[in-house]
Amino acid sequence: MSMSDPLADMLTRIRNAVMVKYDTVRMPKSNIKVNVAKVLEDEGYIVGYQVSDEGPQGTLTINLKYGPNGEPVITGLKRVSKPGLRQYAKAGDVPTVMNGLGVAIVSTSKGIITDRAARKLNTGGEILCQVW
Amino acid sequence: MSMSDPLADMLTRIRNAVMVKYDTVRMPKSNIKVNVAKVLEDEGYIVGYQVSDEGPQGTLTINLKYGPNGEPVITGLKRVSKPGLRQYAKAGDVPTVMNGLGVAIVSTSKGIITDRAARKLNTGGEILCQVW
């Protein structure tokens, strides 16, 4: 969970922040984290995100989303591929998450996209994480 | 300049906003506009940007950047490829902008990237716009 795995760090920060109902969570920026935030926004899991040049490597701020009764829209986040054990799926072989109720975020040659988009584009890649 | 060319609209909004020294400029969100904002931030032309789900198609807000004497960091923006006349460059053939003082933003199969990155990755694509 150390900075040897910045994406795991991102998921942990989000997990902790929604648990205590924070509106926003901040972290050092990286390309992959910004692309994951973009997918989370496109898929409706977060209200939005900000990218700024504050701090030594820039800052990514995520605006978390809650339902009408204050329940977090993100109920779970799981790192799949890990620096020590990469997890890939071939084209046509990218699995769904909980029968399509969640999404997998996949790093492909066409960018960082959902499992659904990967199947549509018939491309495989590294399964970065799952969100539901 | 109408919404038949949302990217031209984005460039116009930025051009007008820096002329009157606004800190931020807002516009309807689209995938391509968010990717262009990302390049502008990576290249140091803007302070940052925000993506949110406000409004019918979401909102992109750009935080504009000024030098120590209030001079805009972006001094020029030009649409290159247009809906009526697309402009493409082959791999190895992506031109520099003002001898490398500016950047071209290129839509490639590896995503929306700078002319420099396109040459490095030896890929071609559609020359969306130039910034300097």
Q: How many domains of chain A?
A: 2
Task: Identify the CATH class of the largest domain in chain A.
Answer: Alpha Beta
- Oligomer classification: homodimer
Write down the secondary-structure element order of chain A: HEHEEEEEEHE
**Structural class of the secondary elements of chain A?**
alpha+beta
Count every helix of chain A, treating DSSP H or I runs of 4 or more residues as helices.
Answer: 3
How far apart are the first and last residues' alpha carbons of chain A, in Å?
Answer: 20 Å
Strand content of chain A: 25-35%
The CATH topology annotation of the largest domain in chain A reads as Ribosomal Protein S8, Chain: A, domain 1
Overall pLDDT of chain A, averaged? 95
CATH architecture grouping of the largest domain in chain A: 2-Layer Sandwich
Count the beta strands of chain A. 8
**Major sheet of chain A: size, sense and barrel closure?**
5 strands, antiparallel
Verbal overview:
The structure is a homodimer of 132-residue chains. The first copy, chain A, is an alpha+beta fold and 132 residues long. Chain A has two domains: 6-64, Ribosomal Protein S8, Chain: A, domain 1 (2-Layer Sandwich), CATH 3.30.1370; 77-131, 2-Layer Sandwich (Dna Ligase, domain 1). The first copy, chain A, has three helices and eight strands. Chain A has helices spanning 6-19, 31-42, 115-120; strands at residues 24-28, 46-52, 59-64, 77-79, 88-89, 103-108, 111-114, 125-131. In chain A, the strands form two sheets. In chain A, strands 4, 5, 6, 7 and 8 form a five-stranded antiparallel sheet that branches. A three-stranded antiparallel sheet of chain A has the order 1-3-2, with helices on one face. In chain A, strand 2 and strand 3 form a beta hairpin. Chain A starts with 5 loop residues before the first helix and ends with a strand. The model of chain A has no long low-confidence stretch (mean pLDDT 95). At the A-B interface, helix 2 and strand 2 of A face helix 2 and strand 2 of B. Strand 2 of chain A pairs antiparallel with strand 2 (46-52) of chain B, so a sheet runs across the interface.
